[in-house]
Write a structure and sequence with these properties.
Strands 1, 2, 3, 4, 5, 6, 7 and 8 form an eight-stranded antiparallel beta sheet that branches. The chain has two helices and eight strands. By secondary structure, it is an alpha+beta fold. 22% of the residues are buried.
């Protein structure tokens, strides 16, 4: 069996386990969530309904349906559009938001981050505080850029409307 097929089976097994309410423990390998989650940390993920997700939670999702990739990024905000909920997430160390995430792409949320000598529980008081701090930092890095862009956009619109 080739590696692509094994990756596909692995993602399907994770989705199935999380869908049944089981927790899975997985090693991490990227740097998008540094400093909270570093490569070779382990995360415990639980399946949950998307209405239970709160801004600041670290959600686990499949960035592209049909691809054998699973990512975990911080939920920045949710938006209801045409009767559906769209999620916007961002890695703590990234400058840009991920592409909008559909409900069916969300697999679960991180409930424990296992470091070498200690663990972080994101739903504990200290964990929620850390989540809020990183949520504020994520938004504060992006918001000034967005406001600057929209400020320039409004100025251009005013000039166009004045003709």
């Amino acid at each position: 069996m080739d590696e692509a097929r094994l990756g596909e089976i692995s993602v399907e097994l994770k989705k199935e386990a999380l869908g049944r309410g089981l927790n899975i423990t997985a090693p991490t390998c990227g740097t998008s969530m540094v400093p909270i989650i570093r490569p070779r940390n382990k995360v415990v993920v639980t399946g949950c309904t998307t209405d239970k997700l709160k801004c600041g939670d670290i959600i686990v999702f499949q960035p592209a349906i049909g691809k054998n990739i699973v990512a975990g990024h911080r939920l920045i905000f949710k938006k209801r559009s045409a009767g559906r909920v769209i999620f916007y997430a961002k890695g703590d160390s990234q400058k840009r938001y991920d592409l909008p995430i559909q409900e069916e792409q969300v697999l679960g949320k991180v409930i424990k981050i296992k470091k070498k000598h200690f663990s972080i529980l994101p739903d504990s008081f200290g964990g929620r505080l850390l989540n809020l701090i990183f949520l504020a930092l994520s938004v504060s890095l992006v918001l000034p850029l967005a406001l600057r862009f929209f400020g320039r956009f409004k100025a251009v619109l005013r000039k166009v409307q004045s003709f």
